[in-house]
Design a protein that fits this description.
Length: 384
């Protein structure tokens, strides 16, 4: 009996060693793919620091390169805080979807029904959903300089004149998505920042994500660098929190990706909210617009991803083809979002059917095309 037990223990130990060796091989393979892809791009784009986080079958992997600040030389870690720019829009969309699920907001209501201040303006015939999908009629990418203040933005909206009929054209817009989040918070009865930091982020299990970085976390806040390599961080603006205000770490943002791919551990209303953000409302070319997120049929070519994340897509108006009814996205999609501020560049992509996702955070605003190329190359190598 004693000898049999010894044999069983020996077999079990060998099995554990085999699993450990296999895992080490997998980790080293992923690390080699990331390193070989990322380091040349960092050098070419002169990026001081990058945090890459990858989830594969529910297991996180973190790869950190360079420095969070050239001034103090502090190394990037998975806890370094980066500005994620318009990736913030996916959080805003989730909050608005949560408001609908909990009966506080209807995406089909016109904006002026939600906010009486807008009555008598173009927003009498623009829906909340159209604001959330950039189809209000041509709201610009940014607020004009004289309206880019919290106390002036409502006056700007009241006098704004559409270029297109509502619902006919997509024009990517911070004011549009920002107002979408503002209306959600209005109907939820609390300031947007408070709802995000005290309700949504905690419910998502994110403990290291902020709109206003607390003083005791400032040492983790990376220094951003603009295209001239000058230090810069995002400043205040109208609806900045709603459109581009989140600061987070690679570890927290990867947890958010995992929640989007596998939301079953979340409370039921939040699961339903995530499903709403993953609904395809219309198509432009090969891109399907969700709330915050954008989708592509998978497998997807690099050229298709580059077209969907191009300057043309961001700066020009495009006619849309609405899906009637809107369709929940199936597993055979790649879901993504880019984000930038003056000194930071972010990209998030995940493939639910493969249970794989990637987060790339950099403290320099480098071209979207380069981020997409990096992610596509890494994901392609990992899904072969």
């Amino acid at each position: 009996m004693h000898k049999k037990r010894q044999k069983k223990l020996a077999s079990y130990s060998a099995f554990v060693l085999f699993l450990g060796a296999s895992q080490c091989f997998a980790d080293s393979r992923i690390e080699a793919i990331v390193k070989n892809t990322l380091e040349p791009a960092m050098q070419q784009q002169q990026i001081p620091g990058v945090a890459v986080a990858i989830t594969v079958n529910g297991k996180p992997h973190y790869f950190n390169y360079g420095v969070a600040s050239k001034e103090n030389g502090k190394a990037v870690t998975e806890d370094t805080l980066f500005e994620i720019g318009s990736v913030s829009k996916t959080f805003t969309a989730t909050l608005a979807a949560y408001a609908q699920v909990t009966g506080k907001l209807s995406l089909s209501d016109n904006a002026s029904q939600v906010l009486p201040t807008l009555r008598g303006s173009a927003f009498d015939s623009i829906s909340v959903l159209q604001l959330g999908t950039y189809t209000a009629g041509g709201l610009p990418l940014q607020f004009p300089g004289d309206a880019d203040h919290q106390d002036k933005m409502l006056g700007y909206f009241k006098q704004w004149t559409p270029t297109y009929a509502a619902g006919t054209h997509r024009l990517y817009s911070n004011p549009s998505l920002g107002l979408f989040g503002y209306l959600a918070a209005h109907n939820m009865g609390a300031p947007f920042d408070a709802l995000m930091e005290k309700t949504l982020l905690p419910k998502l299990g994110l403990k290291h994500s902020y709109l206003k970085v607390p003083q005791d976390q400032m040492a983790l806040y990376a220094q951003g660098y603009n295209k001239d390599d000058k230090p810069v961080q995002v400043g205040p603006g109208a609806l900045d929190s709603e459109a581009y205000g989140v600061k987070t770490s690679a570890s927290d943002l990867l947890r958010y990706v995992e929640a989007n791919m596998n939301p079953t551990s979340l409370e039921k209303p939040l699961q339903q909210a995530i499903a709403i953000t993953h609904t395809g409302y219309y198509t432009v070319g090969e891109m399907t617009q969700g709330l915050g997120w954008e989708f592509y049929n998978y497998p997807v070519t690099l050229d298709t991803l580059l077209a969907g994340n191009s300057s043309q897509m961001a700066f020009e108006a495009h006619e849309v083809r609405w899906r009637n009814p809107p369709q929940p996205q199936r597993d055979n999609v790649l879901i993504n979002k880019t984000g930038s501020t003056s000194g930071f560049g972010a990209y998030v992509a995940f493939i639910p059917a493969k249970d794989i996702g990637i987060v790339i955070l950099a403290n320099k605003n480098y071209p979207n095309a380069e981020r997409v190329k990096i992610a596509h190359k890494i994901l392609s190598a990992l899904t072969e």
